[in-house]
Design goal:
Length: 164
């Protein structure tokens, strides 16, 4: 039996740490990969001391600070901007390839890029409209994490972010 020194951390404390990590991700202090690693570490911890280590190299945040106003043009989270940039880049590449083929053939050929651009763009628009990817620290994000944890451990009890 493993006896761990220190006070055990609650689910509410873990969720608060994940919300802080989400803020650091949104502020650009963490990239998506490091955020995922730290969130996994948070949910694997058992004590408050281990939780403190996850945030040890990040600046402290004000607990009672007023919400920061978002700047104009930052409506979309970073990962959606990355996905949109990838879609745009691939769209330009396939359009250039199609254009070169049509130019070489001397006539407009079948517009096959629609099968690359259309479905991928439709999926991105669907995810933006429905909010399928939630901002870290929100209730939707916590529910998504709970679903993922349920797949990993079907016998785990659900996390109630409202309870301390």
């Amino acid at each position: 039996m493993d006896i761990t020194p220190g006070t055990r951390a609650s689910d509410a404390e873990r969720n608060a740490i994940v919300a802080q990590l989400g803020t650091h991700l949104a502020d650009g202090r963490l990239d998506l990969g490091e955020y995922d690693l730290r969130v996994a570490k948070v949910y694997a911890t058992t004590t408050r001391d281990e939780l403190a280590v996850v945030l040890s190299d990040l600046p402290q945040q004000q607990q009672n600070a007023a919400p920061v106003e978002r700047q104009a043009g930052t409506r979309f989270p970073i990962w959606q901007r990355i996905e949109a940039g990838s879609w745009l880049g691939v769209s330009v590449i396939v359009l250039v390839i199609w254009g070169l083929i049509s130019l070489t053939a001397g006539e407009l050929t079948y517009f096959w890029p629609m099968w690359v651009i259309g479905p991928w763009g439709a999926v991105l628009v669907f995810r933006v409209i429905t909010g399928w990817e939630a901002t870290p620290g929100t209730q939707t994000h916590i529910r998504q994490l709970q679903k993922q944890m349920k797949h990993l451990d079907p016998h785990a009890k659900p996390i109630d972010p409202q309870q301390p």
